[in-house]
Amino acid sequence: MRSFYIMHNKEKIHSECEPKLVGDNITDIRFHGRGGQGVVTASRIAAEAALVEDKYVHAFPAFGPERAGAPIEGFTRISPAAFTIKTEIHYPDIIVILDPTLIGTVDLGKGLKDGGIVIANFAGSMDELKSKIGIKQKVAYYKVDATLLC
Fold first, then answer.
1. Domains, the chain
2. Distance of CA 106 to the CA centre of its chain
3. pLDDT by residue (tens digit) across 58-102?
4. What is the C-alpha separation between 115 and 148, in angstroms, rounded?
5. What Rg, from alpha-carbon coordinates, does the chain have?
């Protein structure tokens, strides 16, 4: 059984600003939310779902000594092949926004790849979402008012 957090690959990884990854089929997901909202849990659930599909995964959070309510990020990397890269995801394929109050206050789209996907918890219109996020490159937007589901 594969490890949930660590995957191995004997191929050399090149170290540059945008790292060369092993294979072209790695999907990088970055989750945005606030401490205590389930960002870490969401990134792990995404990884667990990929494991069920027999993928290799790495899921981890990025936060410092912040207290509950501070903006944090979670990361999930999914690949059909083993990989060794363990860095934060600076160039995601997908961003997931759990907390709508971050929209317009934090640069959520930083590094999002052209053709990427934005999935947002947002009650406003799609045009309002696109305007507030301010992503310039061509991406697909999906939104749901998930706060109403609670």
1. 27-149 (3.40.920.10)
2. 15
3. 999 887 666 778 899 999 999 999 888 888 999 999 999 999 999
4. 29
5. 16
